[in-house]
Design a protein that fits this description.
By secondary structure, this protein is mainly α. 83% of the residues lie in helices and 0% in strands. Helix 1 packs across helix 2 and helix 1 packs across helix 3.
Length: 223
């Protein structure tokens, strides 16, 4: 496992150095439009490279913020210029390819009506609306300057946190790999136990729901 982590780290570092700041912008833009694209591993490694002096910390941060803001703004404009009916049609047709459902849109609209524009600041931290919050802001006709402000605050906080984690970690990430190498057997046993417990809880809950459905059906039949 430790060797795998080491190879992943080397790959990520080489990737970030090859794409540079423009690549970071492009990846963050794509992540905001296509949520399945993961960027969480990218930013800490960019921070590690900044700690080495191979990249500039603020250059990485501003690139990440700009890319995220650009991507979320595109979704905002889609929601603002197209009506809700068009957006729903697009989600029904293409949502499954990018991990967005109509149910998420409904939940996002409901929360937006309840909490208003500030929801954009925390929306990306809420899994059920993360992918639709920008579109919802557009559909709800939120003012553009408000969206840019709140979305910028969110992007600056989230990307800054992950880049700073990598920056503080620096070369110490190799100590983590060494720790994994030393304790990987115990770690894998612990993971296996946790997985078994989760499976047990899932099976138990499924059984309880099934019994409840059967019991409800029997009650209806008796009635």
């Amino acid at each position: 496992m430790a060797e795998v982590l080491d190879q992943i780290a080397i790959f990520m570092e080489d990737l970030i150095l090859s794409i540079g700041y423009l690549g970071i912008i492009a990846i963050m833009l794509a992540e905001n439009i296509f949520p399945p694209i993961p960027t969480d591993p990218l930013l800490p490694f960019a921070g590690i490279l900044a700690a080495r002096g191979e990249l500039n910390f603020f250059g990485v941060w501003m690139s990440a913020v700009f890319g995220a803001l650009l991507g979320s703004s595109m979704l905002y404009l889609l929601g603002r210029w197209a009506d809700e009916r068009v957006v729903r049609g697009l989600i029904r047709r293409y949502g499954r390819y990018i991990g967005v459902s109509e149910r998420e849109l409904d939940r996002s609209l409901e929360l937006f009506r309840r909490y208003g524009a500030p929801l954009v600041i925390v929306g990306r931290a809420i899994p059920v609306i993360r992918a639709t919050i920008s579109i919802t802001a557009g559909i709800s006709r939120m003012k553009l300057w408000q969206f840019l402000l709140y979305s910028g605050i969110n992007s600056a906080a989230v990307t800054g946190f992950w880049i700073y984690v990598g920056y503080q970690l620096g070369e110490n990430w190799r100590d983590i790999v060494d720790g994994v190498r030393r304790y990987q057997t115990a770690f894998l046993i612990g993971v296996a136990i946790v997985v078994l417990l989760l499976v047990g809880v899932y099976v138990r809950r499924r059984g309880q729901k099934r019994r409840a459905v059967i019991s409800a059906g029997e009650n209806l039949s008796e009635g």
